[in-house]
Amino acid sequence: MKLRSGIIRPFAKLVARHIDKWKLTAIEDQDRIRKDLVNRGVDTAYGKDHDFRLIRDAASFSRQVPLVDYEVIKPYIERIKKGERHVLWPGLPRYFAKTSGTTSGAKYIPLTKESMPNHFGSARNALLNYAGKTGKADFFDGKLIFLSGSPELDRSSVIPTGRLSGIVNHEVPSWLRKSQVPSYETNCIEDWEQKVDAIVRETIHKDMRLISGIPPWVQMYLERLLEVSGKETILELFPHFSMFVYGGVNYEPYRRILEKLFGASVDSVETFPASEGFFAFQDEQSDHSLLLNTRSGIYFEFVEADHIHRDNPERIPLEGVKTGVPYALIVNNNAGLWGYNIGDVVTFTSVDPYKIVFTGRVAHYISAFGEHVIGKEVEDSLREAIGDSPVKIAEFTVAPQVDPGLGQLPYHEWLIEFDVPPADLDGFAGKIDVGLAKRNIYYNDLISGGILQTLQIVPLKKGSFITYMRENDKLGGQNKVPRLTNDRKIANALIEINKR
Description:
The protein has helices at residues 3-22, 26-41, 45-49, 58-64, 70-81, 116-134, 164-169, 174-177, 184-187, 192-203, 215-229, 234-237, 252-262, 375-386, 425-439, 441-448, 464-471, 489-499; strands at 95-100, 106-111, 143-146, 161-162, 180-181, 208-212, 243-247, 267-274, 277-281, 290-292, 298-304, 316-317, 326-333, 340-351, 354-361, 365-366, 373-374, 392-401, 411-420, 456-460. By secondary structure, the chain is of the alpha/beta class.
């Protein structure tokens, strides 16, 4: 059974050395990728509409390729869905990844023959780089679970369509498929709670060594495993379990909960995948920031997050970025996305090599009073308030309370589902508030100026977020509740659930 890891180790070391080499050529690689993309796109409908033939360098690229969101490219997508070729990229896409949009309804993101290696190859590189850097490859000798959406595809139109996590399942090579669980049939179950029960039945007696998925759904799976098995920890159930791979949300609010379920601290690798591309992955265990994927068919541009809503904001190529500045991430890729604002905000922690941390969504912030509080500020303040205390949080979201009534000042309302609540809720809220004021000068000014009162916490009963997700048909897969909103739709729904 050790044969697989023995074969993989030397290959993993080669992959790790290769990744270390392309850290040194990021600018040159980005320049080459930009030129390749333009050469492939010049004769497409989009390339002709925007005179790609005039593009000579990064500056002319940003002049000719407009900054867009899904609403702008939707007419081109509709043409592709009808079977028209050479619209955004030569030929037709291999798949459409269907995602939920906030303003556009369902989005259909093209995946091409050229772009698929970015998605699966980057995930593979993240695992092999870890094995090559640490020498730990034993997880390849057991079973690996990837909690994902259904791999079933809608083939009723010209382009097969499905969820990205399900589509990637079709690209898993045979050597890895033998180790992968759950089965195809189990993965196709749409109801998330039924699916978790089926995954538990299928995996509870396996030699599970790696678990991958979004932290809140991994937590649900682990809790169900322990409930069914009667074990105290996952390591009692799976003694060779050694690796957790995650992405999509910040791990820190979940770390203590999951490590308690695991029974120990285990190595983890963070990834940054999306339907639009696999953007970055953690390449060092000693550094939680993510290495930007600069040699994988994506040409990156960046717009300072505070400027993204301006007319014609400056588009900054990789060589122009600075550490510590929040940037909206702009993607140009070999699936036919051009100047595409994916809505994510990242901050560079290093430019040698180019490393980032995900700091929130362009649309996910609170600025009801001009404070522009972002997700990272909220999560860092919460983590600081918890400190070494026994407080454990299952999930939370924050919304503005603009009109609390009774002559009260407005405030930020934190709706928190505690696993272990603080002994002093008001004192805990005060610590978060101090931390937030320290991190956001505008929030501090509003508090000290008597415009806002300090934040208030609404503790929610166990299962409130799960109930909200179930009732809004967002349970499971890649779905997650936004940390921050500028309205009270989610907050009011959670409060109503809490009253039941």
